[in-house]
Structure formats: C-alpha cells, structure tokens
Amino acid sequence: MIDTYVTKVKANHFTEIACYVRGKSSSSVIIGAAPTADWAKASGPLMRAVAAFQVRLRDRRLRGRESETMAQKTSVPRARTGRPAGLSDVMLLASVRKPELRDRGNLFITALVLRLAGAGLLAWIGYIHWVLWQTEGYKFIPTDGPFFLVDAIAGVALAAALLFWPRPLAGLVSAGFVAGTILALVISLTVGLLGFNESISAYYVVLALVVESITLVILLAWTALVAWLVPGRS
C-alpha cells in the first residue's frame, strides 16, 4: 500500500509504502518512506527492499519445509507393524518364512553347512539319550528316567525338522532344546535334579557337555543367518 502523510513538525510531506506480511505463525509490517519530492527517485529502491523482504520470508518457509522433510526421511525407520525396526529384526528369529538363499553364493554354502551340522549334532544328541535310556539303565531312574527318552525323540525330531523345514523358528526351537539339556545336565551335576545327581565321570557326560555346547553355537548362528535372509526384513 502506498500512502502520503504530513508531519506535525514543520509540515514535511512524505510518501510511504507499507506491506503487511503474514507467515505461518507470525506476521510483520514493513514500511519504507521518503520525502514526496524525492519519491520518483526513492520509490524504486524502497519497493525492491520490500520485495526482497517478502522473498526472504518465503525462502525461510521453504527452508523450514525442507528441514521437516529431511527430518522425516532421516528419522529412525519403523516396521510396518509400527514396532521399531530393531525389534522386528529380533522377532524374525521366530519367523516361519522361508529364507531367500538363492543366488547368495557364500551365504548359501555357509547356511547349508551350518544346517547340516546342526541337524547331525541334534540327531547325535538324540542317539546318546537313547543309549543312556535303553542300555545304561537311565530308564530305571525315578522321575528323571522318562526325560531321557523324551530327549532322544526330540533330538531326532528336531534334526528332521531342521532338514526338511529350514525356517528360523526351527533353529530357535532346536537351540532352546539344546540349551535346556545343557542346563538340566549342569543342575544334575551340581545340586541335583528331581532327586537325581549325575556324576562327571559317568559315560558321555563330558562329551555331551562339549558337543551340546558346540551344537548350541551352531544352531544360534544358523538361526541368526537365515533370519537375516528372510523376505520382508526391514
């Protein structure tokens, strides 16, 4: 808006240009004035100054929008379920999806070797528990005896599951089984388990501790690897 006014002191005549600028959260008024006699010469620079103020304000708004957009792009990614991506990746350890192993080169070979080794060791654990139950007299142990038969069946069943259903969940369950057998053996060696105290000098005890520990590491490594290769990982 362009207007003229006269000062109360000495009655000087001025012409002014005023611009009301409204932003998203605030507003401003910019005013430029010059003596009316000099307006023809001063109007151009004053108008350019007002226009420049508007451009700078607009640029600040644009930079603000760009900053918000960049913040959204660089924010921590979320899984499609709304959970943090890290949590979703951990939950993939229990996934029933088939991992993508085709065209993975060394990863495919590594996963295959770990799976075959894990399955073989699980079958061995099942066999040892069968031998202990059937030929070493463990089936006559009150309360604990039947668990050796259960372990024998579970070891072979999980080995078959790992071979024919290679999903992260199969590896996780197998690792839990092995961890449970190690824990049960350690408890029976120390404070006793359900009234039964195992001896470190008994057949297969030391060997079982070593092999089961190796099996646990292999199963956890395989499970983590194939969970990382599951489709849809965030």
Task: Explain what you see.
The protein has 234 residues and is mainly α. It folds into two domains: 2-73; 88-228, no CATH class. The chain has six helices and three strands, in the order βββαααααα. The chain has helices spanning 39-73, 85-91, 106-134, 145-164, 168-190, 205-228, and strands spanning 2-6, 13-22, 27-35. The protein has a three-stranded antiparallel β-sheet with strand order 1-2-3, with helices on one face. A hairpin with a 4-residue loop joins strand 2 (13-22) and strand 3. Helix 4 runs antiparallel to helix 5 (168-190) and helix 5 packs antiparallel against helix 6. The chain starts with a strand and ends in a 6-residue tail after the last helix. Residues 74-83 have low confidence and may be disordered.
Class derived from helix and strand content: mainly alpha
Largest sheet: 3 strands, antiparallel
Mean pLDDT rating: 79
SSE topology string: EEEHHHHHH
The tally of structural domains comes to 2
Helix proportion of residues, in percent?
55-70%
Strand residues, percent: 5-15%
Oligomeric form = single chain
- What are the low-pLDDT stretches, counting only 5+ consecutive residues below 50? 74-83
* Radius of gyration from the alpha-carbon trace, in angstroms: 39 Å
Number of helices: 6
Strand line-up across the major sheet? 1-2-3
Query: What's the total number of strands?
Result: 3
How far do the termini sit from each other?
A: 56 Å
Give the overall shape, derived from the CA principal axes. rod-shaped
